[in-house]
Amino acid sequence: MLFRVDPSSPVPLGDQIAACVRRAVSDGSVAPGERLPAARALADSLGVNVHTALRGYQRLREEGLIELRRGRGAVVTAGASPHRARLLEGVRAVVAEARELGMTEGDLLDLVRAELKA
Amino acid sequence: MNRTKLGRAFLAALPFLIALILALVLAVTLADRLPARMASHFSASGDANGHMDRGAFLLTTVLIMALLGALWAWMAARGRFPGRSYDGFAAAGYAMAAFFGYLTTATLLLNVDVSDSGPEASFTMWHLVGACGAAAVAAALGLCAARLLPPSPDEPKSSGQDGARISLTDGEVAGWARSATSWWLPLTAGATAAVGVALMVAMGPAAGVPLLVIGVLILTFARPNVTVDRRGLTVSGLLPWPRVRIPLERIEGATSQDVNALSEYGGWGYRFRPTGSGVIIRSGEAIVATLESGRHFAVTVDDSATGAALLNTLVDRRRGRH
Fold first, then answer.
1. Is the pLDDT of residue B150 over 80?
2. Which CATH number covers residue B281?
3. How do B296-300 and B276-280 pair as beta strands?
4. Are B174 and A1 a contacting pair at CB < 8 A?
5. Does the ipTM surpass 0.90?
6. Cβ <8 Å between B177 and A6
7. CA angle B300–B303–B305, rounded 5-degree value
8. Which site in B99, B197, B291, B295 is 20 to 30 Å from B207, CA atoms measured?
9. Which GO molecular function annotation, any one, does this entry have (chain A) (predicted)?
10. B287-297, pLDDT tens digit by residue?
């Protein structure tokens, strides 16, 4: 898969790496079960720190898009559908907008809960 | 199949056919002077250390020659040989046929009048020199014969500048990576290592260790990774080394093409051809890079279009053309 990062952008590099994978899953260019390069190999390839690459991968693991296994690198999970990736992108957008409005975590969660009950 | 291709296939198969007929004629005329169990394998000092049934020996010879001849004919008919690249391919076939033909003939002659119980046939290392000499002479003959055929038109010179691109902003760093899977690589690695272990148990460490090492080496390449980034085009295994890397400065451009392992590369693995080399683990789509030397480097991998496009973009950027 294609990774592209811009070191001059204000977005942290780890987040940029995560965004690449999310985008690739959502447009279907990466399928479940596909192996991504190991964090070290990815870091060498892009010329970034290993911890930066790992931070990006850990983020993706928290989102359930990849599994990280010792010695086996990163594998796109079976549940990583384009749909799920798009949902994650939506959630990120909502959180960013809430932050811009100055909402607290509680305020936002209340809104989400109200929507879920509706 | 047109006439040129038929001519090429015939010319490529010819040396194997000649070697085969020569060995068979010799075996038939000498039939009553050959022992039932022929010495077929020799140690470095020239003593026979392996024997084979006469029928089995001839069958093996026929099979090897027929298979090699068929492979060469098939490649000559199906492969792409721009310009005069067919000549080198034909010469290599002639050399191989002469080498095996010489060794077969020498083995047959050495076994003449050797009784089943009498003194063993012996094989001096000079025969290997003779085989190499025969191969060199045959290669020259093959080259001359191939020269008589008209050359193919050169493939359109694609400098790669017409290939696809990916739009990158100025500061952006990009890398593409994909791992290729194959069912036969781990199998081959396992089989090689197993034979190595068996040899080690049967004949001591010296006999088995080389095969074991090769088996392990293949195993690290069971799932080769193909990477395109600021360093160039890299094919690597599990470990950082060994790997094949073509740096960006040696690359003119790249395209995504369908390649055929058998007819274009003569098989699978790390292949060398007159027009270039390649890591070929299957037939199908591949990144084919044109190098500055005019040769090609191919690697079979899925989603090769993206890899090739990024390679073109990075080469452009390096040369300051946009």
1. no
2. 2.30.29.30
3. parallel
4. no
5. no
6. no
7. 90
8. B99
9. DNA binding
10. 999 999 888 99
Tokens found for residue B299? 């690697």
- Picking from A6, A8, A46, the nearest residue to B175 by CB comes out as A46
| Digit-coded pLDDT (tens) for B99-140 | 989 988 888 888 887 765 555 667 777 888 888 999 999 989
B120: CB partners within 8 A, 6+ apart = B39, B47, B48, B114
Burial group, residue B231, by CB count within 10 angstroms (0-12, 13-18, 19+) = middle
Separation CA B90–CA B236 (nearest Å) = 32
Residue B255 within a domain? yes
Give the three-class secondary structure for B196: helix
Residue A49 near chain B (CB below 8 Å): no
Q: What are phi and psi of A29, to 5 degrees?
A: -80, -10
**What is the number of structural domains in chain B?**
2
Band the pLDDT of A52: cuts 50, 70, 90: very high
pLDDT, average across residues B129-152 = 86
Dig out the tokens for A7 from the structure. Answer: 């070191």
B225 contacts in chain A (CB < 8 Å): 37, 41
CA gap B189, B197 in Å, rounded? 12
Closest CA of chain A from B19, distance in Å: 49
**Scanning every residue of chain A, which has its alpha carbon at the shortest distance from the alpha carbon of B225?**
A37
Structural contact between residues B314 and B228, judged by C-beta atoms closer than 8 angstroms: yes
The whole-angstrom distance between B271's CA and the closest CA on chain A is 25
Q: Which of A68, A65, A15 is nearest to A40 (CA)?
A: A68
Half-sphere exposure of residue A83, counting CA atoms within 13 Å on the CB side? 2
Q: Is the CATH number of domain A13-117 1.10.10.10?
A: yes
Residue ranges per structural domain of chain A: 13-117
* Nearest residue, CB atoms, B177 vs list A7, A37, A47: A37
A10/B contact by beta carbon, under 8 A: no
Selected residue of A4, A21, A48, A50 to mutate for chain B interface (largest B Cβ count, 10 A): A4
Q: How close, in Å, is residue A78 to chain B by CA atoms? A: 18
Q: What range defines the domain where residue B83 resides?
A: 3-148
Tracing tokens 């070290």 back to the chain, one arrives at: A40
**Domain end position, chosen among B128, B148, B168:** B148
Residue B291 belongs to some domain of the structure: yes
Same structural domain, B27 and B115: yes
